[in-house]
Amino acid sequence: MLTSTDLLRRRRFLPLFVTQVLGAFNDNLYKNAMVLFVVYAVYSSAEQEFWFSAIAQALFTLPFVLFSALSGQLADMRDKAMIIRWVKIAEIGIMSVGATGLVLATLGIGVHAIAIPLLLLALFAMGLHSTFFGPIKYAILPQHLDRSEVLAGTGLVEAGTYLAVLGGTILAGWISAEVAAILVILLAMVGYATGRQVPPAPAQGAVEKIDFNIIRSSINVVKGSMEDARVYYAILAISLFWTIGAVLFIEFPPLAKNVLTASKEVASLFLVVFSIGVAIGSVSINALLKGDVSARFAPISVLAMGAFVVAFHLVCKAWVPHDRLYGVMEFIQLPLAAPLLLSLLGISIAGGMFVVPLYAFLTTVVDKSQTARAVAANNFVNSFAMVGGSGVAIGLNFIGISIVDQLLLAAAMCIVSAWLGWVLHKAELRLAPA
């Protein structure tokens, strides 16, 4: 089995890895710069902040609903490396629009009428960017890697992604929106340059006609990809995982500001801890499984995640709000800061260990000519799950359930995820080659 370090020295993996890392870094630099600026400098009420966070999440998710099937077909029927180049060119234009919105907002020019709509338009376009890049970053792995390397490659992609989230998050919390506006354009250009180094990855089977009917093609892609029980349960488990994620992501910015009375720098620290944890979990599960694509650790991983969510909830319930926002140094000296950060770290490590093998299932148990469509089917179902999670969070907020108590919903969903992981492992054992 090739080690993760070995893979990082191979051209069949490194350019894709770097391109994905740069894209994730840039994506999160933009998103966090936007959200933190709007939450801390534009709006002044928890309700407005919650609704902005929810709308932003919905806009980013919508392209996955509309175009996942098309993205999967394109990636399976065309050269994946060529698609990467086109997607990366588009990122330069998208970030130019987002940068314009950031600059206008900081200058106070048409903040509500022009700047915020531009910011949200760019966010929607980045969701579209991710919709077309997402299937490729996983589906290209079994094309360029041996089967025994796919889990390590998937883990590295996930770890690199969340370390990039970490870097983008840290930077967004510490630089001005004007500087962020310049950086997102420059990083998009560098991402295009690295994307050009990805080796060719042509279609693996017969080139079929692409169905541009988004309703029919979405149904066909999902039906075709979920005929294998392992893929079916993997998609369901991943989707429930992202439902939990949607609930947590929506709650996080207003919770940090209004419950924990933390500054935007502390909010960035929380996301840093979360990203480090997912990276640790993503790499460590490959070491535990020794390269074997298996769901045997999935149930215990997601149950541990649920337990840490409950711990995080209890710390938030015990938290005493301050009359002003804590800075980083003040915050980390508080008695409850350590259990809060450790709970968050536990959530993210367990989450990484749960989800990485499930993504590996999508690309190893289907024919190589179908891998992108399997990932696209997963993204399509995930998007509905995330919209559902967002809707539940909005509904709970509407009927007056506090953000802190909504965390218990995420913990409860971890139990269902554990059951799905167990069913997947049973299907894995039943369908494994003799």
TrEMBL record:
Name of the protein in its database record: 2-acyl-glycerophospho-ethanolamine acyltransferase
Compartments, record wording: Cell membrane
Gene3D superfamilies per record: MFS general substrate transporter like domains
GO cellular component, one term: plasma membrane
Bilayer-spanning residue ranges: 12-30, 50-71, 92-125, 162-190, 231-250, 270-289, 301-320, 340-362, 383-401, 407-424
UniProt superkingdom: Bacteria
Family matches, as SUPFAM superfamilies: MFS general substrate transporter
Alphabetic keyword roster: Acyltransferase, Cell membrane, Membrane, Transferase, Transmembrane, Transmembrane helix, Transport
Keyword Nucleotide-binding: no
GO molecular function terms noted in the UniProt entry: acyltransferase activity; transmembrane transporter activity
Membrane topology annotation: Multi-pass membrane protein
Family matches, as InterPro entries: MFS, MFS_trans_sf
Entry keyword Transmembrane: yes
